[in-house]
Design goal:
Helix content is 26%, strand content 36%. The chain has 236 residues and is α+β, with helices and mostly antiparallel strands. The chain is elongated and about 95 Å long.
Protein backbone atom coordinates (compact mmCIF):
# COMPACT_ATOMS: atom_id res chain seq x y z
CA UNK A 1 0.00 0.00 0.00
CA UNK A 2 0.95 3.65 -0.32
CA UNK A 3 0.45 6.34 2.32
CA UNK A 4 -1.49 9.20 0.77
CA UNK A 5 -2.28 11.12 3.97
CA UNK A 6 -0.55 11.29 7.37
CA UNK A 7 -1.84 13.35 10.31
CA UNK A 8 0.31 12.79 13.41
CA UNK A 9 -1.83 15.12 15.56
CA UNK A 10 -4.95 13.07 14.96
CA UNK A 11 -3.03 9.82 14.62
CA UNK A 12 -4.60 9.42 11.20
CA UNK A 13 -3.07 7.50 8.31
CA UNK A 14 -4.74 7.06 4.92
CA UNK A 15 -3.32 4.42 2.63
CA UNK A 16 -4.25 3.33 -0.88
CA UNK A 17 -3.69 0.05 -2.67
CA UNK A 18 -5.20 1.54 -5.83
CA UNK A 19 -2.46 4.18 -6.07
CA UNK A 20 0.21 1.50 -5.90
CA UNK A 21 -1.46 -0.50 -8.66
CA UNK A 22 -1.81 2.58 -10.85
CA UNK A 23 1.88 3.40 -10.44
CA UNK A 24 2.85 -0.20 -11.21
CA UNK A 25 0.68 -0.16 -14.34
CA UNK A 26 2.24 3.13 -15.45
CA UNK A 27 5.73 1.65 -15.09
CA UNK A 28 4.66 -1.46 -16.96
CA UNK A 29 3.09 0.63 -19.73
CA UNK A 30 6.30 2.62 -20.25
CA UNK A 31 8.31 -0.60 -20.39
CA UNK A 32 5.95 -2.07 -22.99
CA UNK A 33 6.06 1.08 -25.14
CA UNK A 34 9.85 1.10 -25.05
CA UNK A 35 10.16 -2.58 -25.98
CA UNK A 36 7.32 -3.14 -28.45
CA UNK A 37 8.05 -3.07 -32.18
CA UNK A 38 6.01 -3.35 -35.36
CA UNK A 39 5.86 -6.91 -36.65
CA UNK A 40 6.21 -8.52 -33.22
CA UNK A 41 3.85 -11.35 -32.24
CA UNK A 42 2.87 -11.28 -28.57
CA UNK A 43 0.14 -12.51 -26.25
CA UNK A 44 -2.51 -10.37 -24.60
CA UNK A 45 -5.84 -10.41 -22.78
CA UNK A 46 -9.10 -9.17 -24.30
CA UNK A 47 -10.27 -6.37 -21.98
CA UNK A 48 -13.13 -4.77 -23.88
CA UNK A 49 -15.29 -5.43 -26.93
CA UNK A 50 -16.95 -2.78 -29.09
CA UNK A 51 -18.81 -2.79 -32.41
CA UNK A 52 -15.65 -1.69 -34.22
CA UNK A 53 -13.12 -4.01 -32.59
CA UNK A 54 -11.47 -5.33 -29.44
CA UNK A 55 -9.09 -3.77 -26.91
CA UNK A 56 -6.32 -6.15 -25.87
CA UNK A 57 -4.04 -5.63 -22.85
CA UNK A 58 -0.48 -6.41 -23.94
CA UNK A 59 1.22 -5.31 -20.72
CA UNK A 60 -0.03 -2.19 -18.96
CA UNK A 61 -1.49 -0.74 -22.14
CA UNK A 62 -4.38 -1.69 -24.39
CA UNK A 63 -3.99 -2.01 -28.14
CA UNK A 64 -6.87 -1.96 -30.62
CA UNK A 65 -7.68 -4.88 -32.87
CA UNK A 66 -10.00 -3.43 -35.53
CA UNK A 67 -12.90 -5.70 -36.51
CA UNK A 68 -11.29 -6.20 -39.94
CA UNK A 69 -8.18 -7.60 -38.21
CA UNK A 70 -9.92 -10.07 -35.90
CA UNK A 71 -10.52 -12.96 -38.28
CA UNK A 72 -9.76 -14.02 -41.84
CA UNK A 73 -13.47 -14.81 -42.04
CA UNK A 74 -16.17 -12.16 -42.41
CA UNK A 75 -17.69 -11.29 -38.99
CA UNK A 76 -20.46 -8.84 -38.06
CA UNK A 77 -19.47 -8.31 -34.42
CA UNK A 78 -16.29 -9.02 -32.40
CA UNK A 79 -18.36 -10.76 -29.71
CA UNK A 80 -19.14 -13.50 -32.25
CA UNK A 81 -15.57 -14.83 -31.97
CA UNK A 82 -14.04 -13.22 -28.85
CA UNK A 83 -14.76 -13.08 -25.11
CA UNK A 84 -13.60 -10.61 -22.46
CA UNK A 85 -10.78 -12.20 -20.44
CA UNK A 86 -9.72 -14.47 -23.29
CA UNK A 87 -6.01 -14.80 -24.05
CA UNK A 88 -5.13 -14.15 -27.68
CA UNK A 89 -2.02 -13.95 -29.81
CA UNK A 90 -1.64 -10.69 -31.71
CA UNK A 91 0.68 -9.14 -34.24
CA UNK A 92 1.77 -5.52 -33.75
CA UNK A 93 0.81 -3.48 -36.82
CA UNK A 94 1.67 0.05 -35.68
CA UNK A 95 2.98 1.87 -32.59
CA UNK A 96 2.46 5.55 -31.78
CA UNK A 97 4.46 6.24 -28.61
CA UNK A 98 3.45 9.91 -28.33
CA UNK A 99 -0.28 9.18 -28.43
CA UNK A 100 0.19 5.82 -26.70
CA UNK A 101 -1.77 4.06 -29.45
CA UNK A 102 -1.08 0.57 -30.67
CA UNK A 103 -2.73 -1.20 -33.61
CA UNK A 104 -2.90 -4.97 -33.39
CA UNK A 105 -4.07 -7.90 -35.50
CA UNK A 106 -5.29 -11.30 -34.40
CA UNK A 107 -5.75 -12.72 -37.89
CA UNK A 108 -2.23 -11.79 -39.03
CA UNK A 109 -0.81 -13.77 -36.11
CA UNK A 110 -2.29 -16.84 -37.82
CA UNK A 111 -1.52 -18.47 -41.20
CA UNK A 112 -3.12 -16.72 -44.17
CA UNK A 113 -5.73 -19.14 -45.64
CA UNK A 114 -5.09 -17.67 -49.10
CA UNK A 115 -1.76 -19.52 -49.14
CA UNK A 116 -3.77 -22.76 -49.36
CA UNK A 117 -5.91 -21.74 -52.34
CA UNK A 118 -3.47 -22.83 -55.06
CA UNK A 119 -3.02 -26.25 -53.48
CA UNK A 120 -6.73 -26.80 -52.84
CA UNK A 121 -8.32 -25.61 -56.09
CA UNK A 122 -7.71 -25.53 -59.83
CA UNK A 123 -9.49 -23.80 -62.70
CA UNK A 124 -12.52 -25.82 -63.69
CA UNK A 125 -13.10 -27.35 -60.25
CA UNK A 126 -16.63 -27.59 -58.88
CA UNK A 127 -16.66 -26.57 -55.22
CA UNK A 128 -19.21 -26.15 -52.45
CA UNK A 129 -19.46 -22.74 -50.81
CA UNK A 130 -21.60 -20.53 -48.58
CA UNK A 131 -23.06 -17.23 -49.82
CA UNK A 132 -21.62 -14.65 -47.42
CA UNK A 133 -22.50 -11.32 -49.00
CA UNK A 134 -24.85 -10.15 -51.76
CA UNK A 135 -24.07 -6.92 -53.62
CA UNK A 136 -25.51 -5.32 -56.74
CA UNK A 137 -22.78 -6.70 -59.00
CA UNK A 138 -22.70 -10.26 -57.66
CA UNK A 139 -22.23 -12.46 -54.60
CA UNK A 140 -19.24 -13.38 -52.45
CA UNK A 141 -19.02 -17.08 -51.70
CA UNK A 142 -16.81 -18.57 -48.98
CA UNK A 143 -15.06 -21.65 -50.40
CA UNK A 144 -12.59 -22.03 -47.50
CA UNK A 145 -12.68 -20.48 -44.01
CA UNK A 146 -11.44 -16.95 -44.68
CA UNK A 147 -11.40 -17.30 -48.48
CA UNK A 148 -14.21 -15.76 -50.52
CA UNK A 149 -14.61 -15.75 -54.28
CA UNK A 150 -16.83 -13.56 -56.43
CA UNK A 151 -19.67 -14.80 -58.59
CA UNK A 152 -20.29 -11.84 -60.91
CA UNK A 153 -23.93 -11.15 -61.74
CA UNK A 154 -23.22 -12.17 -65.34
CA UNK A 155 -22.25 -15.62 -64.03
CA UNK A 156 -25.40 -16.16 -61.97
CA UNK A 157 -27.68 -17.72 -64.60
CA UNK A 158 -28.26 -18.13 -68.34
CA UNK A 159 -31.26 -15.82 -68.21
CA UNK A 160 -31.04 -12.11 -67.37
CA UNK A 161 -30.68 -11.39 -63.65
CA UNK A 162 -31.66 -7.95 -62.37
CA UNK A 163 -30.25 -8.54 -58.89
CA UNK A 164 -28.31 -11.51 -57.42
CA UNK A 165 -30.88 -11.86 -54.61
CA UNK A 166 -33.28 -13.21 -57.25
CA UNK A 167 -31.10 -16.31 -57.52
CA UNK A 168 -29.46 -16.91 -54.11
CA UNK A 169 -29.80 -15.94 -50.44
CA UNK A 170 -27.19 -15.15 -47.79
CA UNK A 171 -26.19 -18.28 -45.89
CA UNK A 172 -27.23 -20.57 -48.75
CA UNK A 173 -24.90 -23.40 -49.72
CA UNK A 174 -24.28 -23.54 -53.46
CA UNK A 175 -22.04 -25.31 -55.96
CA UNK A 176 -19.83 -23.05 -58.07
CA UNK A 177 -17.21 -23.52 -60.76
CA UNK A 178 -13.74 -21.99 -60.41
CA UNK A 179 -13.04 -19.74 -63.40
CA UNK A 180 -9.82 -18.07 -62.27
CA UNK A 181 -7.49 -18.04 -59.25
CA UNK A 182 -5.17 -15.19 -58.25
CA UNK A 183 -3.82 -15.82 -54.72
CA UNK A 184 -1.46 -12.82 -54.94
CA UNK A 185 -4.37 -10.39 -55.31
CA UNK A 186 -6.58 -12.61 -53.14
CA UNK A 187 -9.14 -13.04 -55.89
CA UNK A 188 -11.08 -16.07 -57.06
CA UNK A 189 -13.60 -15.81 -59.89
CA UNK A 190 -16.51 -18.22 -59.66
CA UNK A 191 -19.52 -19.15 -61.76
CA UNK A 192 -22.87 -20.47 -60.61
CA UNK A 193 -24.15 -20.63 -64.19
CA UNK A 194 -21.32 -22.88 -65.41
CA UNK A 195 -21.63 -25.13 -62.35
CA UNK A 196 -25.33 -25.68 -63.08
CA UNK A 197 -24.55 -26.51 -66.72
CA UNK A 198 -21.91 -29.03 -65.69
CA UNK A 199 -24.22 -30.63 -63.14
CA UNK A 200 -26.93 -31.03 -65.80
CA UNK A 201 -24.43 -32.61 -68.20
CA UNK A 202 -23.24 -35.01 -65.49
CA UNK A 203 -26.82 -36.02 -64.67
CA UNK A 204 -27.50 -36.61 -68.37
CA UNK A 205 -24.38 -38.76 -68.66
CA UNK A 206 -25.44 -40.77 -65.61
CA UNK A 207 -28.90 -41.42 -67.12
CA UNK A 208 -27.40 -42.50 -70.44
CA UNK A 209 -24.99 -44.79 -68.61
CA UNK A 210 -27.83 -46.34 -66.61
CA UNK A 211 -29.77 -47.07 -69.82
CA UNK A 212 -26.68 -48.62 -71.45
CA UNK A 213 -26.04 -50.83 -68.42
CA UNK A 214 -29.67 -51.92 -68.40
CA UNK A 215 -29.40 -52.88 -72.08
CA UNK A 216 -26.28 -54.92 -71.35
CA UNK A 217 -28.15 -56.78 -68.63
CA UNK A 218 -30.89 -57.60 -71.14
CA UNK A 219 -33.38 -55.20 -69.66
CA UNK A 220 -33.41 -52.79 -72.61
CA UNK A 221 -35.97 -52.41 -75.40
CA UNK A 222 -35.49 -54.88 -78.29
CA UNK A 223 -37.05 -55.32 -81.75
CA UNK A 224 -38.90 -58.29 -80.37
CA UNK A 225 -40.50 -56.09 -77.72
CA UNK A 226 -41.69 -53.67 -80.37
CA UNK A 227 -42.79 -56.06 -83.16
CA UNK A 228 -43.40 -59.25 -81.22
CA UNK A 229 -47.14 -58.69 -81.16
CA UNK A 230 -47.29 -58.32 -84.95
CA UNK A 231 -45.43 -61.60 -85.50
CA UNK A 232 -47.91 -63.40 -83.24
CA UNK A 233 -50.86 -62.05 -85.27
CA UNK A 234 -49.30 -63.28 -88.54
CA UNK A 235 -48.99 -66.77 -87.09
CA UNK A 236 -52.69 -66.79 -86.29
Amino acid sequence: VKIIELNRTKNKVVVSRKKVLEEEMEIKKKETLSEIEEGMTIKGIVRRLTDFGAFVDIGGIDGLVHISEISWQRIDNPSAVLKVGEEVEVKVLAVNIEDERISLSIKQAKPDPWTLVSTKFEKGDLVEGIVKCIVDFGVFVEILPGVEGLVHISQMADEHVTHPSEVVSEGEQITVKVLDINPGDKRVSLSLREAKKENKEEKHEVKVKEVEEEDLRGGGVTLGDVFGGLFEKDKE
